[in-house]
């Protein structure tokens, strides 16, 4: 069985597949392949955001704590998805929680290392910021839609 390198795994992921090769090589320095079993909590809302994941297989449930209801799933993400964007801006605290719903294989990227790469290369910083802005917008829209569903009053 051939084991793929972090670079190979990045090259296969939708989030960075069209990124220039030299940037993917640099990003691979900040990543590692991980396996997380169903039920493993990747992050909890308001905890320190110090990493993110590029999902290759499995499913992750993005959740939000709602007083009186507990953790409410607002979105489920599968292969090709990105989990985690809160590391990008101070105070680097998770805006949502995430738990593995179906066994997951992913590339986990260290936010401190990625921040360092971004500070060294403004082009990479702009590109990653643009990509994560799209992820952030998608997450916030999903959260809004899910909360409307939960609190909609039936006529």
TrEMBL record:
SUPFAM superfamilies: cAMP-binding domain-like (SSF51206). It holds the Pfam family cNMP_binding. PROSITE patterns: CNMP_BINDING_3. Residues 35-135 form the Cyclic nucleotide-binding domain. CDD domains: CAP_ED. This is Cyclic nucleotide-binding domain-containing protein. It comes from Paractinoplanes atraurantiacus.
């Amino acid at each position: 069985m051939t084991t793929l390198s972090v670079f190979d795994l990045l090259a296969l992921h939708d989030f960075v597949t069209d990124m220039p090769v030299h940037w993917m090589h640099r990003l691979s320095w900040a990543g590692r392949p991980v396996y997380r079993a169903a039920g493993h909590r990747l992050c909890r809302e308001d905890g320190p955001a110090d990493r993110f994941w590029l999902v290759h297989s499995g499913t992750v449930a993005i959740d939000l704590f709602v007083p009186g209801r507990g953790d409410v799933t607002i979105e489920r993400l599968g292969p090709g998805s990105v989990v985690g964007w809160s590391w990008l801006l101070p105070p680097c605290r998770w805006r949502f929680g995430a738990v593995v719903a179906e066994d997951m294989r992913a590339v986990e990227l260290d936010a401190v290392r990625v921040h360092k790469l971004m500070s060294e290369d403004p082009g990479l910083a702009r590109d990653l910021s643009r990509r994560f802005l799209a992820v952030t917008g998608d997450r916030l829209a999903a959260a809004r839609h899910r909360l409307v569903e939960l609190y909609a009053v039936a006529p």
